[in-house]
Amino acid sequence: MSPEPIFRVALRGEEILTSPRWNKGTAFTMTERKAFGLTGRLPYRVNSLDEQCDRAYDQLEGRDAPLRKNTFLQSMRDQNWVLYYSLISRHLKELIPIIYTPTEADAISNYSHLFRRSEGMYLTFPSQDSMEEDFLEQTKGREIDLIVCSDAEAILGIGDQGVGGIGISTAKSAIYTLLAGMDPSKTLSVTLDVGTNNENLLDDRLYVGWPHHRVRGEEYDKFIDKFVQLVRKHHPHSLLHFEDFGVGNAKRLLDLYRDKHAVFKDDVQGTGAVTLACVMSAVGVTKTKLTDQRFVIYEVVKKVRPTVLIGCSTQPGAFTEEIVREMAKHCERPIILPLSNPSRLHEVTPQQANDWTQGKALIATGSPFPACKMPNGKDYIIAECNNALIYPGLGFGAMLAQSRTLTDTMIIAGARRLAQLAPALQDPDDALLPDFGDAPTVNFEVAVAVAEQAIEEGSAGVDWKKEDVEAKVREKHCEWAALGNRRIREGFS
Ligand SMILES: O=C([O-])CC(=O)C(=O)O
Ligand SMILES: [Mg+2]
């Protein structure tokens, strides 16, 4: 890839400044300004991307509350993609919690009140007759690699959020770009608005979604099927990512479509895979076997004597002192994973789990937490067992390999690679999973493992040799990052 990729763009003047894909703001060169009619539309000085990022970071710092930072970044995403992604990439650990969990949960629950500008695609039950037309309005002629959709029945741990679910679709696709290098012009974020059973939203006169109770049963299935068939017809090679559907539908929809299209259900497969990687890493520390573990998702600790406690209850405090102490009586290094999101819904805080087990617990959480103090005074780093450590790589690997399905064996290959990168395998008192600051490298490794597995098992659509996979993935992984240096010329690309 040349360090200065060149694109042909058929927009001019105001149109190019209001296109987030092409807008470069003060980074337009003098040649570009002349060619696109921008000389009188911009102040004189040409800034580098570094300078733009510095300015934007200062502006961001001026906003104290995380939600204000979130809305600032949302506006920036509407204005200038390269700046938005470059800024976040430079402050990954600080800004991912702003555009993703936990802050995005607040943005979603306040969606109708914070609403300024539409984002992504809204497909609404009463407008289903025009679904294909609406879909093509936004996608015709576009190459689309990834579609993230949500019906918002079970957003993070905050439940039914109706039309606000668009926020999780756009956040998840931004993470694909940031952590795996997916080109955002080839992604589509969709909300499937089938109503909401959240009475607060229904009672809110400013609610911008369809003010109706959730459609269920056959009508719901038909609506979802209509959408899936459109995806299959117009973008047969895309990856279709389902996010935050209710438990009653999530697994059912996955089973229904997984043999027909490359579908991925993040909260089943992504969360499952990152948790598996985390447990593999912990089992590496305890020098036991995965098959020797006793898993408990909620309670019954005395009876079962679990070695692994997994929290996905969204009940804060569910892992009580009694439960945790009881567990620690029966195992040397209890593996405790309070995974509910966002942070305020965790079943136990890492510091409590550490204190109640005299520093023996191996801990990972679903949202970011600060390190806790071990009894010996050392810091214990809390791994973030969030599916973002793996799903961008799973999806990117499957997409690059043009895999017709995302098989369990591909997912396990990704989980195994992630577990191999765990710091705890070098030092048993270190984090169970890699640091989020390393998430781009980690997802790159996951993508390679997934694509290699797809090739090995014959589900890939490309005819790469296994030994070439790493180089191929690297080339694509870097492509989007190189856009910070892009030049544009007049014409059609
Ligand atoms: O989005 C996240 O942070 C993880 C996730 O999928 C969920 O909690 O539903
Ligand atoms: Mg989710």
Automatic annotation (TrEMBL):
Residues 268-455 form the Malic enzyme NAD-binding domain. The active site is at residues 100, 172. Belongs to the malic enzymes family. Divalent metal cations. Prefers magnesium or manganese. This is Malic enzyme. NCBIfam families: PRK13529.1. Its cofactor is Mn(2+); Mg(2+). Keywords: Metal-binding, NAD, Oxidoreductase. Gene3D superfamilies: Malic enzyme, N-terminal domain (3.40.50.10380), NAD(P)-binding Rossmann-like Domain (3.40.50.720). It comes from Grifola frondosa (Maitake). One of its GO terms (biological process) is malate metabolic process.
